[in-house]
């Protein structure tokens, strides 16, 4: 098989200088063909080139217009921001139980929350630890979604901690062990929940990030971080338990994090909120999540915080 150049959705959005929402919308309309590698959508370079050529005019170029959020709402497309596989299951249940079509934006928690503030996401998943309060998500939402009414629902709870090599040869058992000399770390991108978790504990324990070898080496998902540890590229990384089991490395649990969903409250979103609440509380959805293992569903569907 010949090697063909392909792009991620994020790379296409950067090339065309439009938002990822625009690209997702074009994909849903069938104007841009994609293929999947696992949970990631990719686009052949030749298909992108064909789309560009088909939208050119002999007199003036036809721009790729940014979709107005009202237009997207009218077409019943939903953008769900986050990376956990539980979101894929949620999207499937939403499509099965309603007329909505779900689009996935694999951005980190903070980036997703900012995209919601800017009107580019409908459901944002969050797992952001605040070191001053020991609370998850609410302190950040209060600061970012200023002026917006919203509801915060629990999706699942899950263990977060350290990815270490088989047998934990460096005997890493807590955050202060990251002070070990010559310890090599692999980090997550800025704005991700795992990056915030690490940075908050470095701050709490007064560990300068500049002292961590590899702190500036970033991956964009839990599996890539776990794989880097497995391959010996790094000694340690921060992430969730599920990825460690998939990759086959050891995991040191340090905290139970609450993984929540935030949705803005508006007349247009009233139906969406009711649908999501119903799905999260349903036996079929919870049974499907429980079967995955490593997820706590004791609070799933509960209202964590709500403004009016």
UniProtKB/TrEMBL annotation:
Domain (Helix-turn-helix) ranges: 7-55
Domain PBP residue range list: 95-277
Molecular function GO labels: DNA binding
Protein name per Swiss-Prot or TrEMBL: Helix-turn-helix domain-containing protein
Taxon lineage: Bacteria, Bacillati, Bacillota, Bacilli, Bacillales
